[in-house]
Amino acid sequence: MIRSCLSALLPSVVRVCGLALVLAAVATPALAMDTQPLPTPEIDAGSIGSALTVLSGGAIVLMHRLRRR
User: Fold this and answer.
1) In 3D, which of 57, 38, 37 has the Cα closest to residue 49?
2) Rounded distance, CA 60 to CA 69, Å?
């Protein structure tokens, strides 16, 4: 009895939760427009170059270690 009631109620609960998620996703940008814009940090070219160097060096070391095995 309880199992049949739950199985009949489940599609409705799923629809309501889905609608709530869609409404929350749509309402969030609308609420964010009322606030003052926050300053964003600037990323200079030197830090991007350093990050790429570290990432490519790590990838080379990892490939070398995997080839040894």
Assistant:
1) 57
2) 15
